[in-house]
Amino acid sequence: MPQQKLESQKPSSIDDSLCSRCMGHRSLCGIKPCPLLLRARALVDIESAVRGQSLEGSSPPSIFVGNQGYPKVLAGPLIPPVRGETSLMERPDLWLDKTLDEILSIRFNLVRTKKRIPVDDAMDPSRMLQETQTMALSEVPLDSEATLLKRPTFTSVFTGRTLPIGPSAPLDDFHLEANPKVPRPVDKVTSDIDLDTTKGVMSLFESGIRQEHMTRLLSVGLLGVQKRRRLVPTLWSITAVDDIIGKQLHREVLRLPWLNDYEVYVDHALGNTVILLFLPSAWQFEALECWLGSLNPPIITDHERNKGRNKYASSVAGAYYATRLPALEHLVTRQHKQAGVIVFMEIDPAQWVPLGVWRFREIAHRALNKPTKRFSTLDEAILEIDYYLRHPVKKYLDASTIYKEFNHQTLLTDFIN
Amino acid sequence: MFHATLDSTKTWKQIVDALATLLTDAHFVISKSGIVLNQLDSSKAAMVSLNLPSKVFQDYDCEGEYDVCLGIDELVRVSKRMAGDDRLEFSLLKTDPKSERFDRFEIKMHGQAERKFSLQLLTPPDERSKKPELNLAANAEMFADSFKQAVKDIGVVSNFLTIKATADSIVFMGEGDTGEAEVALKKGDDESALFDLKVEENVRARYSLSYLSDITKAISSDSLVFQFGENKPLSIEFGIAEKGRIGFVLAPIIEKR
Asked: What's the predicted TM-score (pTM) here?
C-alpha cells in the first residue's frame, strides 16, 4: 500500500463557516498560526512601535481585561508611547470611514500592559488597580507612566469581539500623572455602592454615556453592589452591556404600537454590509450572518420571538447583541413603534481582519441614521435588500425562521369578526 | 371591594404558569361571578383565556367589577414563594385610603407564618378582549398527555404541526428537511387516547410548533378538548380546579400565497 501523501491536504479546504465561528482565536480549523491572523499581523510593523521597558503616554483611556485563566485574569491599562489627544484610539464610532490598515495602526500603537489579578480584587483594589479604575472613570485621555517587566511583543491574539489588541507586555508598575475628568453621571453611579449593575448601566445609558465607557467601567469592576464588584473580561462585558440595555428596552418596546410599513436600512463599511429590515409585527429579532468566499456560503442564524431570549445566542454570538441593541434603541427612542427586525450581515473575508463586533454596532447605528426606506409590501422590501447583498437574498430567507413565520403565520385578529 | 380565598396553591401556580406561557401582563376582570381573563399575546397570533367562577374559591366576595392588570414576572416570582400547604387569600387594596381606585393586588399566604405580598396594579388596556366565536368543524376530546406526546413527536422532524380530522380519526403530521412524522388516533377503540370526536366535515390545518410546544407545557389536566377547522384557529381547553377552565387559541399557518 502506498502511503497517503501529506501534501494533498491543502489548507485551502478550510470551511468558511469555521472561520466565522472561530474569529481567529479558537483554532477550529487546526491550522496554526491562523491564516487570517497572519494577514492582519502583516499589515503593521509592530516591533518598531515601542522600544525599551518604560512606557509613557496618554491612555485614551483604555483598559483590557483578558478572560483566560478566569477567575485570575490578565488585566491592565493600554498605553500608547505618545502623549496628547489619543482618544481616537478608543472611538470605534469614528473609524468606519478609515481603511483597515489605518484602524489597525491606530490600535497597534497601544501597548497592552498586563498583570494577573484575581477578579474579586475589584472590591478591595490594590494601589495599582485603584489607579487603573480611576483611569477608567475618565472621559478624556490621561497621562500615565508604566514600568514593564519585558519589552512589548506581539504575542496576543485578536478576539472576535473586542477592539483589536496590539503588542503586550507584563506590567511592573503603573502611575497616573494627571487627574481624571469624570462625567457627573459616571461619578454618581460608580460611587453608589448599593446600586446594582443593571440599574447602574441603565442610568449611564439614559445620561448618554458612551458604550465603550460603560463597558470599561463594568470590566474594571466599578459597577454594582460593593460586595459583588468584579473584574469582568472585556470580551464578556461588551456583550453584557449590550444585553443589559437590550433587556430593558425590550420591555419597553413590547408596549408600543406596531409599525405600519416595511422599513429597510442599509450601510456598508470595512468589507461588511449590514441591512436591517423592520417588519410590521410584534417584536422579534433574527440575525443572519454570511461569510462570502466559497461557492455556497452557509448562513448562520439566531433568533428570538417577542418574549426575548434567555440563552446566549451562541451561533451569531456577539454580533447578535451588537445589532439587536441599535435596532431596539431605534424603535424605542426614535420610532416609538414596535416591529420585528431581521438583520442581514454580509462579510467579505478578502477584506476582513478580526476587528471586533463593534463594527456591526457602528455600521448598524450609521444605517439607522440614514433616511428611512419605506415599502408597503414585503416583496418590495426584499427586492431592495437583494440589491445590496452579494449573496442572493433568497439564501438568507431560506435560512430565516422569523421570515418564514412572518410570511405564513396568520393573526387571530383576522378571524375575530 | 374584592376578597377571595383558595386552599390550593397548586391550582394557583398552574394558572400563573398557563398565563406566563403567552403573556407579559395579565389583565383580569374580577366581578361578582368570578375571575375572567381573555387576552391576545403580543404577537396577536395566540390567545389565552381563563374562567374561574366564584365556586372555584372557598370564600368569594366581590362588589362591582374591576380591571386588574398585573405584571407576569412579578406574579411568577410571588407564586414561587408559595409553600405547598399554604392557604391563599386575595384582595384589592388602596395605598391611599382617600383614593377611589384600588392600586394594589394583595396575595396573603397563610401557613407557618402569615406572608403578604402586594403587587402594584398596571394601567389596564383601553378595551377588554373577548373570546372569539369561531365555528370550528372538528371537536375532539383526548388524553392531555397523548396530545403533548404528539406535539413532541412531530417536533422531531418539523417546525409545523398539521392536524387532519375525518369522521373517525385524528392524524397529527409534520414534515421537514430530514423526513416526515405521523401520529394517528382512532375513535371507538377502548385503548385509544381519543375519547370523543365530532367532525362535521373532513378538515386539515397547520400550526406553528413553537407556540404549541409552549402551550402544551402549560396543560395541567388529564384530558383536554380541542377544536379546529379548515385553515382556521385551533382552540385547546382544559379544566382547572373542577369548575374552572383554561383555554388557548392559536391562529393557523397558511400555505404560501
From this structure: 0.81
